[in-house]
Amino acid sequence: MKLPFLSDKPQWLALLWLISIVFCSLGISSFLSLVVVKLLYGVDVLDIQAFLSDLDNPALLPALKVMQTFQAIGGFILPPMFFAQLSTGNALEIEGSFTKPKWLEVALAVMLIFAAQPIINFTAEWNASLDFPDWGGIEQWMKAQEESTAQLTEKFLVMPTVGSMLFNLFMIGLLPALGEEFLFRGTLQPIFRRMTGNVHFAVIATAFLFSAMHLQFYGFIPRFLLGIVLGYFAVWSGSIWVSVAAHFFNNGAAVLLSYLIQHEMVNKSIETVGTSGNWKAAALSLTLCLFLLQQFYNRRKRYLD
Question: Could you read off the pLDDT of 137-175 as tens digits, one per residue?
Fold first, then answer.
């Protein structure tokens, strides 16, 4: 019986294959998204940069949603499945994908993400206040990147109807939760673990790359910490679905909260709990997170190397 192509290859080669697959798939999906945008909105590929910089263009938001959806599927969901096919002969055999999660573990993970919001806000505000060395205009570029991302995110989160909110839950909540967890915690993290034999290095290195991938430098630290927590969820539970559920809750809660604020169902101040130096809320949040993390650890499956 012929073994899958990557099943007996060294891990450094598997990593190179994964990187190649991601870039190729992302390139193809980006091209296809531009074709669809051209057909739907008449935007020529050569004019795409000018189109994306025109924030007042009414066609910008729906076009961006098309591009985001294509790139989420092509850049994050399909590559780990193709990699799994080459590694195991089964595209669905992403690490932890066949392990049914325990509902208590899912509940603990979701509770921790909920409890973490004040400490996330606290560290995000601190991270945003940092000054970086302006080597060759790097800091200016980082700030411009951050402002552009913030403007686009604000437009994405305009949800006049329930339908628009549900679509954002799919595009901003579900697709990234599946794709980013499949790619980072389900594929990249196990490769690092097999390469080094150190699960903690694998979790931290994967979380670093996960945060860096977003190119939001003034939000790097809270996303890095979130990546570490998601990594341990996957490791300790043995199921990728626990980290997927936590990731979806984190993103989906932000979408739902934005919708409720826009429609004046909740007070806007709920978004800022833990900010403005509110170290008491942040300290309580951190204490609760550590307690819940300890509870999760105590239930871990003992399948580590």
Answer: 666 766 766 776 777 777 778 888 999 999 999 999 999
CB 92 within 8 A of CB 187: no
- pTM as predicted: 0.90
**Number of helical H runs and strand E runs in the chain:** 14, 0
Q: Within the chain, where are the H helices?
A: 11-41, 48-53, 60-72, 78-88, 103-115, 117-128, 138-156, 162-168, 175-180, 189-196, 199-213, 220-237, 240-262, 279-298
Both 89 and 137 in a single domain?
no
Same domain for 82 and 98, yes or no, is no
| Maximum alpha-carbon separation in the chain | 63
pLDDT, greater one: 128 or 243: 243
Residues 40, 147: one domain? no
Instruction: Decide: 94 and 186 in contact? Cβ < 8 Å.
Output: yes
- Tokens matching residue 94: 């992403």
Domain extent for 33: 1-93
| 292 contacts 108 by C-beta, under 8 angstroms | yes
Where among 47, 65, 93 does a domain terminate? 93
CA distances from 119 to 111, 112, 177, 226 (A): 14, 11, 21, 11
pLDDT, one tens digit per residue, over 209-262 is 999 888 777 788 999 999 999 999 999 999 999 999 999 999 999 999 999 998
Query: Could you tell me if 212 and 221 are in contact, meaning their C-beta atoms sit under 8 angstroms apart?
Result: no
